[in-house]
Design goal:
Elements lengths: L3 E9 L5 H11 L20 H6 L6 E7 L2 E7 L7 H8 L4 E7 L6 H13 L2 E7 L8 H12 L2 E4 L1 E6 L2 E7 L4 E5 L5 E5 L3 H18 L4 H8 L6 H12 L4 E6 L8 H11 L10 E11 L3 E8 L3 E2 L7 E7 L2 E4 L2 E2 L4 E6 L7 E4 L4 E4 L3 H6 L4 E7 L5 H14 L4 E5 L4 E6 L2 H13 L5 E3 L3 E2 L1 E5 L3 E10 L2 E11 L7 E4 L8 H17 L5 E3 L2 E11 L4 H15 L5 E15 L3 H10 L3 E7 L3 E9 L6 H8 L5 E11 L3
Parallel strand pairs: 1-3, 1-4, 4-5, 5-11, 6-11, 26-30, 29-31
Antiparallel strand pairs: 2-3, 7-8, 8-9, 9-10, 12-13, 12-19, 13-18, 14-17, 15-16, 15-18, 19-20, 21-23, 21-24, 21-25, 22-23, 26-32, 27-28, 28-31, 32-34, 32-35, 33-34
Length: 643
């Protein structure tokens, strides 16, 4: 009988401790002998040099473990907002998730964003309340925070115990045991002997029964008859509760001190849904792309069938992936996650048939829309002979990350990189140099502006001739409504023309618009109208594209354009003692404060800010708040820029 598989993701706000929790899970399951610490750069899951240097997760690390007879793959996702697309792709392949909340900070901005992602995708979730090794942090305050902000009733299934201000154990509510450290540092379950501890465990067991009775008639009948509810009945009813939208199962402890981790892992074995049933005839789906110096391109792949090695598609290889290590396997199991290597170039979201052929492409356009890149940076080669290699390497990186775009400036011989934020840009450049050996010169980042037409221009006629071949066309352009940001082509007289001609014209217009005309950003919100197209001889498509692109360049002049800039919603949290200087910093950067709130300890503000003034804000706000401020930026819209 095949072992049951569960795929889980771990999500959190930055610094809530999710990578530390991931390490302790591997340690508890016996996958590693000693858990690594993020602060020391020794975390197993953070294997990129950029992750070790910054102490943050960048790529969704994947590892596996066995627990209570189940096989788990878990994905340690990034918490930094610049890498939100990594979270989206990870959630496409999981049955459940752990949302880590720091008791030091409670529910934060990225906690809310992660919660919304999980809810929108219907991913069954457990909460782990972390950092309770500090007795000054209140578990009750966090539970209230969860109910008020996330809108669900928390059901607590583990409770920390302290002695002289130090955490000494965690009470596991369902099993009615104390989780204490064994000699090797792992947790072990011991019988509760203290009356005070037994009373606390009984209190939370009773509360769990009260919540569970709303989801199970058997438990309800026994509770009303004041009968004892055995753990097996409670577990069954809590599984139904876990699938609801009204309540959330919560565990608590300290990942750093390895308290409460064992209880959480057991909860994962009880309360997650099984993998879905997949269609027959499918091999699986590509969920991420990675690049390794030793192996080249690797696809992270969710299998949708069970096959042994003799049944695999030709020239395909599969591996177990543990962080950056690849271990060969001899069989595939349905629902499991592997690393896959093939000579074929894969695409994110691609589904493969049993022969290894792409049969369905669920591309990453959704992620590209959600994570609109708002920074642009010019990159060029140091050596002309490296041009092709740099172009290929940038292409691989852009396929790996759906929130990153690259546009080639053919005439200037450089590329423009569009990124979500400064951290993402720094990491991409570092990987371009380290992984691909590209020597490049990088300009200063600027915001990604939008260029828009003020009025109609044209028509303009342009001709292009090469020997006996000649193409002549007439083109005009007019602005679309401000809510429409795309590029359109109107050419009614070409309705019955060959498809490749229309494709060539659209390609020329899109490439010209991408580069823009003021050197600030792409041209958007324009409808081009082709009035005539005359060809002498058998004109190839590249000639038509050239004539069209040249016409656009002659048609649109800088005086015809206006600039729009990106505005962001800025959310900042800091201790009240720094409220004045933080607010002043925001206002000095032209931020318009829209909301101020707080609880007497923590100051919160929300403002609308022009992105162009927020380069270096991270360093500045952490400096003036002595590292205590947390912030997030969310794109609002583009607004007219008054020169």
């Amino acid at each position: 009988m095949l072992q049951s598989v569960r795929n889980i993701a771990i999500l959190a706000h930055v610094d809530a401790g999710k990578t530390t929790l991931s390490e302790r899970i591997l340690f508890t399951a016996g996958e590693i002998r000693r858990p690594g610490n993020v602060e020391e750069g020794l975390a197993t899951m953070d294997y990129l040099p950029e992750e070790k240097d910054r102490g943050i997760t960048i790529e969704s690390g994947i590892a596996h473990f066995e627990w209570r007879g189940m096989w788990f793959n878990f994905i340690d996702t990034p918490g930094h907002v610049d890498f939100g697309a990594e979270v989206d792709m990870a959630l496409s392949a999981v049955e459940g998730a752990v949302l880590v909340i720091s008791a030091a900070s409670g529910v934060e901005t990225q906690t809310i964003a992660a919660w919304k992602k999980l809810r929108s995708r219907g991913v069954r979730t457990l909460i782990f309340i972390n950092k309770l090794d500090n007795p000054d942090y209140s578990l009750d305050d966090v539970l209230i925070n969860i109910e008020e902000i996330l809108g669900v009733r928390p059901v607590l299934l583990s409770v920390p115990e302290y002695d002289s201000g130090k955490m000494t154990s965690v009470l596991d509510v369902i099993s009615n045991t104390r989780l204490i450290h064994a000699t090797d540092g792992r947790e072990e379950a011991k019988k509760i002997t203290s009356k005070a501890s037994a009373a606390i465990a009984a209190k939370y067991y009773k509360e769990a029964v009260e919540f569970a009775s709303c989801f199970d008639d058997v438990v309800l009948e026994k509770a009303m008859a004041e009968q004892l509810i055995p753990p097996e009945d409670l577990i069954r009813s809590l599984e139904s509760l876990a699938a609801s939208d009204d309540c959330i199962l919560c565990y608590s402890g300290s990942a750093l001190e390895n308290y409460g981790v064992r209880g959480l892992m057991t909860g994962l074995s009880f309360f997650l849904s099984p993998p879905p049933t997949f269609k027959d005839g499918l091999l699986g789906q590509v969920i991420r792309l990675r690049h390794f110096q030793a192996f080249g391109e690797i696809s992270l792949f969710r299998s949708m069938t069970s096959l042994d090695r003799t049944e695999w598609p030709k020239e395909f290889e599969f591996f177990r992936m543990k962080a950056n290590m690849l271990l060969p396997v001899d069989e595939l199991r349905s629902g499991d996650i592997y690393a896959m290597r093939s000579k074929k170039e894969m695409e994110l979201g691609a589904q493969l048939d049993l022969g290894g052929n792409v049969v369905n492409k669920e591309d990453s356009e959704t992620a590209r829309v959600l994570y609109q890149p708002l920074l642009q940076t010019q990159v060029e080669c140091l050596k002309i002979e490296d041009y092709a290699h740099v172009e290929q390497s940038l292409g691989i990186l852009s396929r790996m990350d759906p929130s990153f775009r690259v546009v080639r400036h053919a005439e200037g011989g450089f590329w423009v990189l569009y990124t979500v934020g400064e951290v993402q840009l720094d990491v991409l450049i570092a990987r371009l140099k380290r992984e691909f050996g590209c020597e490049v010169q990088v300009g200063n980042p600027d915001v990604k502006w939008q260029e828009r037409l003020q009025h109609q221009v044209g028509p303009l006629q342009n001709s292009f001739q090469a020997g006996p071949l000649k193409v002549t066309l007439s083109l005009s352009a007019l602005p679309l409504a401000t809510t429409e940001h795309d590029i359109q082509l109107k050419a009614d007289f070409l309705e019955n023309a060959p498809r490749e001609i229309l494709a060539g014209l659209r390609s020329a217009l899109l490439e010209a618009a991408d580069v823009g005309f003021l050197g600030k950003g792409a041209l958007v919100g324009v409808q081009f109208e082709l009035h005539s197209l005359d060809c002498v001889g058998d004109v190839p498509i590249p000639m038509i594209k050239k004539a069209c692109a040249d016409a656009v360049t002659m048609l649109i002049k800088p005086i015809d354009l206006v600039l729009y800039e990106p505005y962001m919603e800025l959310s900042v949290e800091c201790p009240v003692s720094f409220a004045g200087v933080v607010t002043g910093e925001v206002q000095s950067r032209e931020g318009k404060v829209r909301e101020i709130n707080g609880d007497g300890r923590i100051h919160f503000l929300r403002a609308e800010v022009p992105l162009r003034n927020f380069f270096g804000f991270s360093t500045a706000v952490r400096s003036i708040s002595k590292g205590t401020a947390q912030y997030s930026l969310r794109f609002l819209d583009y607004r007219h820029h008054n020169m």
